[in-house]
Amino acid sequence: MQKPQYKYFDRELSWLNFNARVLQEAADDSNPLIERIKFLGIYSNNQDEFFRTRVATLRRLIDIQRKKFSEKADQLQESLDKVMDEIKAQQGQFVKIFSKLNKELNKENIFLINEKELDKEQGEFVRNYFRENVRHHLFPIMLKKFNSEDSLTDQSIYLAIQLGRSNNRDKDAYAIIEIPTNAVNRFLILPEKEDKKYIVILDDIIRYCLDEIFTRFKFDSFSAYTFKFTRDAELDIDNDVSKSFLELMAHSLAQRKKGNTLRFVYDRRMPSELLKAVAHKFKITNNDQVVEGGPYHNFKDFMKFPNFGYANLVSPKRIPVQHKDIPEGGSIIRAIRKKDIMLHFPYQPFQYIVDLLHEAAIDMKVRSIMMTIYRLSNPSNVINALINAARNGKAVTVYMELQARFDEEANIFWSEKLQGAGVKVMHSIPGLKVHSKLILIQRRENNDYRYYANIGTGNFHEKTGSLYCDDTLLTANPKITSEVEKVFGLFQMAFRPSRFKNLIVSPFSTRNHFMRLLNHEIKNATLGREAWTTIKLNSLSDVQLINKLYQASEAGVKINLIIRGICKLVPGVKNMSENIKVLSILDKYLEHSRVFVFCNGGNELYYISSADWMVRNLDNRIEVTTPIYDAEIQKELKEMLDIQLRDNCKARKLDANMTNSYYRNNSKVIRAQLEIYEYLRKSHSKQ
């Protein structure tokens, strides 16, 4: 392969390449049918977030550069044009895949029908359902009178309705209705007929019953077409020192709901006069991305597509593996005191973390609990355990990150709930997020204090704990726990730098630490010694570390990268990255852990981290990387990484052309997530 003209992949195109892999999973007929439909929902949700954040940022940068009359504006516009071309191409694939999946549903005697396909009996069922469950959630607005266009949110979908009177065509009117997907299930299962199962979508239920809303206004013809907005979701936080950070965040969130429109998607069947009226009312311009779509938007709801209980249409459920060192119903704190424990979610139960907090809440010897929180489920047993601890007289301190994107409002809610229960809650400052995943429990033992710590790669979130692959270390090792205490001290000292001997903490030392480790591998390679590293990340975009990986490759260091999402590094290029292999694994679970292994001259070094190799994680966040000292855990981590490197079912081999080709060989079929489950099941068997 010749050296390409570019040294790094474009960040946005690399992310879109990741989302293309999600689309591949929807097209992969080795996946159960309902799982494939859910992947369409994941793809759609990902794309919405991409517009709200990355496209929003590009648009802002273009506007800034144009005001400066800078040539960079044209370069940025070219990048945005390439992004939109790729999205358009993917959208074409999306439509084809959905059409194919619909046909496959029909083969299973499952039919997704619209309002025009309802027979008389089904129509009566739909009307009754509408009257009992939908009607009271609908608030029609006449478009002519509507004067608060920024009150429409990009989390919702709307119907643009053309209303007519047969006796007076001049009295035609337009209205809009929000489809209440936050209050009513998007899918209604109709009564079965002749072993055939039918589903109608909420949008079509409303279309079918429009007469029940508008007949009283003497309209007698109705047609409705969906549309949606995507708004700029980046927060502008002002610097008013008279307000608390919580107040500043609340104000910024209110402003987000009025963010500039980035994309307007509409049903291509919408009559031109109605489209013009809607576009005019909501100030849609040529600068906005106006996209023709089908009759349904917000495909993210398809992540909850009904499965009718057919086992063959969904992935089999696997019971999480119990950890061999944690006795069933026994003390987790006692187990941690004996040895370091590592949990691998979702292969092992996230419930262990909740149980640890519950145990600490009622343990008479526990004096305090400290915890960082970035995202939580709702409801949250983690929050319940912390509140219980405070009620039991423990000193509970929570560092709640208010800047967790799209979870800001939830975290404000949890902050207020915890404070009301007597928990001390701290918040960050603008520009510096706390993304580390830490718990520190202080316990009185033998007339002294002993600490127990959790350091993980994922959030304390029960729902994602059953969907995201993450690792977490539970330890009582004083070398680690004393430094976790120092990390919490940072929050109380306005993030003043501290020295750490064992933990690697952003924004102080993460990049430099890994640069030193790579330099050591380079030195060994130049001396003819064994030199290699295996690195697993969500995203790799930091140019300094990418350049160091290129340097290591040229020196002969063998580098295996497992990257789920963004990867700006261009692999497999002679005289630049020929010793770098990059795999990306997409499967039922989302690969979220960050794991690092370095040869280190045969004395291998192991780490897990909350940080990806991105500028934001290295320079603008409090992140914690912990070494793994326990030999048994090291062996487990290495075996799990080796299984992933041998995956020949769900691994894509990334190359300089971004082809997303599946990694295939003639050896035994290895699907990493299934193999890892079996590996842990056997190694943690207590028989």
Topology record:
Blueprint: H1 11-27, H2 33-67, H3 72-107, E1 110-113, H4 120-134, E2 141-142, E3 157-164, E4 173-179, E5 187-193, E6 196-201, H5 202-208, H6 210-214, E7 221-231, H7 245-256, E8 261-267, H8 272-281, E9 289-293, H9 332-338, E10 341-345, H10 351-362, E11 366-373, H11 381-391, E12 395-400, H12 408-420, E13 424-426, E14 433-434, E15 437-445, E16 448-456, E17 468-475, H13 478-492, E18 504-506, H14 510-526, E19 532-537, H15 543-555, E20 558-563, E21 580-585, E22 590-591, E23 594-598, E24 605-609, H16 615-619, E25 621-627, H17 631-645, E26 651-654, E27 661-662, H18 672-683
Parallel strand pairs: 1-6, 8-9, 11-12, 12-13, 14-25, 17-22, 19-20, 20-21
Antiparallel strand pairs: 2-4, 3-4, 3-7, 5-6, 7-8, 10-17, 11-15, 15-16, 16-17, 18-25, 19-23, 21-26, 23-24, 24-25, 26-27
Helix pairs in contact: 1-2, 1-3, 2-3, 10-11, 14-15, 17-18
